TrEMBL record:
This is DUF1272 domain-containing protein. It comes from the Bacteria.
Length: 81
């Protein structure tokens, strides 16, 4: 099950469970669409893989399967990429 991490690792933008702007790689590194399309140029800075839109978990399942609250942030943001 996906963690549904709450933020972009580069800019720390909030990415709620139902955000259409969330992008993930195969290791579930999580970034916003602006960082993926801009600074990262579609390549994950952690693993070198590509990105896909993060699936949206239906709201009625959030109580049983909540999203993660653990924020992951690269210290230098996208500049660390």
């Amino acid at each position: 099950m996906l963690e549904l991490r709450p933020n972009c690792e580069c800019c720390d933008r909030d990415l709620p469970f139902d955000s259409a702007e969330a992008r993930i790689c195969t290791f579930e590194c999580t970034f916003c669409a602006d960082c993926v399309d801009g600074a990262l140029k579609g390549v994950c800075p952690n693993c070198g893989g590509g990105f896909s839109a993060r699936p949206i978990r239906p709201a009625h399942l959030m109580a049983k399967y909540p999203a993660s609250t653990k924020r992951v942030l690269k210290p230098q943001g996208c500049a660390a990429a």
